[in-house]
Amino acid sequence: MLLEVRGLGKKFGGLDAVKGVDLDVPEGQVTAIIGPNGAGKSTLFNLLAGFYRPTSGTVTFEGKDITGMKPHRTVREGIARTFQTTKLFDDATVLDNVLAGRVVRSKSNALDAVFHTPRHRRDERASKARAMEELEFVGAAHLRDRLASKLPQEAQKRVSMAQALATEPRLLLLDEPAAGTNDEETEAFGLLIRQIVARGITVCLVEHKMSMVMNLADQIVVLDHGQRIATGTPAQIKSDPLVIEAYLGA
Ligand code: ADP
Ligand code: MG
């Protein structure tokens, strides 16, 4: 198992945003996490990537206990995420935003940077090449010199994906990649996610668009009120009475 989550919990005051969640994410697959608004999906991602510290439970990634690790360390371990609301650097170009994702893989240190050593220059060139590759991969290379914050939502989502991919993740957490996009764009994001999986990157996806979830997911996990209420293949989930009651029927 690439990721093993056991008894994971997060309390906000008296509220159990995530409660006793067990989750196995097999390598090379797409695991979709669905559930009504407020079910705890984004909180779960924040716990996995270290933005929140769990109140209880454990997170094991590639056999290593990463419970409570901060985001700059989980990203080095190989976990990258995109946000439900894209979080790009406002005054930076698209290329600089993606280069920010390269920082975690930089081989030169602060002194190399200050003195512009040959190692630093080599590193910078390689980083830029890699960032451009990722921009090409997501179909946003032509936007490299544009201000990220001025782009339409759909383009910003692509750039965030390139930024996450630039960190060389083994596990990519995508929080509502298709939210606010039209049917055609949703379809294009679906294709892009398939290409990401084809690169050997495991994907965990939170998404409300059921067509996308049913098309892409190998495994679906359903959360409701912070708890896991079902796990199964798309076909199993579609016909699960608990799920229909909590979510699909709503
Ligand atoms: P989802 O992504 O499934 O819509 P969230 O994980 O965002 O749900 O939220 C789960 C619950 O936790 C909600 O009731 C939400 O209001 C609450 N919550 C999320 N983040 C915080 C926070 N930082 N502080 C307090 N409550 C929070
Ligand atoms: Mg959410």
Automatic annotation (TrEMBL):
<dbReference type="GO" id="GO:0015192">
    <property type="term" value="F:L-phenylalanine transmembrane transporter activity"/>
</dbReference>
<dbReference type="GO" id="GO:0015188">
    <property type="term" value="F:L-isoleucine transmembrane transporter activity"/>
</dbReference>
<dbReference type="GO" id="GO:0016887">
    <property type="term" value="F:ATP hydrolysis activity"/>
</dbReference>
<dbReference type="Pfam" id="PF00005">
    <property type="entry name" value="ABC_tran"/>
</dbReference>
<dbReference type="GO" id="GO:0005304">
    <property type="term" value="F:L-valine transmembrane transporter activity"/>
</dbReference>
<dbReference type="InterPro" id="IPR032823">
    <property type="entry name" value="BCA_ABC_TP_C"/>
</dbReference>
<keyword id="KW-0547">Nucleotide-binding</keyword>
<keyword id="KW-0813">Transport</keyword>
<dbReference type="GO" id="GO:1903805">
    <property type="term" value="P:L-valine import across plasma membrane"/>
</dbReference>
<dbReference type="InterPro" id="IPR051120">
    <property type="entry name" value="ABC_AA/LPS_Transport"/>
</dbReference>
<dbReference type="GO" id="GO:0015808">
    <property type="term" value="P:L-alanine transport"/>
</dbReference>
<dbReference type="InterPro" id="IPR003593">
    <property type="entry name" value="AAA+_ATPase"/>
</dbReference>
<dbReference type="GO" id="GO:1903806">
    <property type="term" value="P:L-isoleucine import across plasma membrane"/>
</dbReference>
<dbReference type="GO" id="GO:0005886">
    <property type="term" value="C:plasma membrane"/>
</dbReference>
<dbReference type="Pfam" id="PF12399">
    <property type="entry name" value="BCA_ABC_TP_C"/>
</dbReference>
<feature type="domain" description="ABC transporter">
    <location>
        <begin position="3"/>
        <end position="250"/>
    </location>
</feature>
<dbReference type="GO" id="GO:0042941">
    <property type="term" value="P:D-alanine transmembrane transport"/>
</dbReference>
<dbReference type="InterPro" id="IPR003439">
    <property type="entry name" value="ABC_transporter-like_ATP-bd"/>
</dbReference>
<dbReference type="GO" id="GO:0005524">
    <property type="term" value="F:ATP binding"/>
</dbReference>
<keyword id="KW-0067">ATP-binding</keyword>
<dbReference type="InterPro" id="IPR027417">
    <property type="entry name" value="P-loop_NTPase"/>
</dbReference>
<protein>
    <submittedName>
        <fullName>ABC transporter ATP-binding protein</fullName>
    </submittedName>
</protein>
